[in-house]
Prior knowledge:
Order of helices and strands: HHEEHEEHHEEHEEHHHHH
Radius of gyration: 35 Å
CATH superfamily of the largest domain: Homing endonucleases
CATH architecture of the largest domain: Roll
Shape: rod-shaped
Amino acid sequence: MGLSFSLETKEELARVKNRRSCCARAELVAFLRQGKGRILTMGTATGTPGGVNHPAGDPGGAILLATGHAAVARRIYSLARAVADLGVKVKTERRARGGRPIYKVITAAGLETINTWLAGWSAVPEYRCCLAAYLRGAFLAAGSANRPAATHHLEFLVEEEGEAGRLQAVMEQLQLQPRLSRRQRGLVLYLKDSEEIIRALSLMGAHNAVLVYENVRILKDMRNQVNRLVNCETANLSKTVETGLRQAEKIRYLMATAGWERLPASLREIARLRLEYPEASFKELGAMLVPPVGKSGVNHRLRRLEFLARQMRARGGE
């Protein structure tokens, strides 16, 4: 089974290189803040959202992450080790019946130690590169995105109101305008506009995901353009046929009441062609005349025939 678009995006983000230590710190801070409700103290019987139970262990330690995707686990392991010096390790657990293994990023530090470290970074990042890194960390911890071929939707599920406000401030500084809603599990910051989703993915460094979005958008634009052209062409064709049939009917009435002999030669020729080709456009009729006549000339002659038919009908077919 293939990965979801969210997991593909997270695995791509897990390979983005932070060029500055402040960006790496911002990413880890965001991950720990937004994922704080998912960090489990070892020795409890609590399971992850995926239903994995954590066996008893060092009561002072904590599980920062339990995931089925090695790239994401490596990312958090590297950040926690390089930035916070939390003394982390990765433990792999095999599921029964050949399921995807679970990678747990474990630190000997407890939740109190993690919260103390986070308290030193309470403010919103100052630099733009750090804001983007913060957004990336938040997405790794609490983000998801629908595949663009379905619906445009990117969201962050945050459990604490203060963290939701901080993340919203970060997004607004990056010229993103998230909407806020409440669910049973917490607060949701989400984007619905495809342009904003593309901007958010690009800021985080998910350039392959951006290409997927752009390809889908191009295909949709092309499909819409083709549909518009087909609809326009169909409407024009219907209008041309309706006009031709109306003119042919009036010409037949005119010929039945007045006869051909009373018409000038130029009108007789266009009248004959219109009766023979009621579905033809003005341009096509003009090309059949000898010498050829432009669309405006054909239109003028046919309007003259219609006018004569109306006059004849008004006089009672005299």
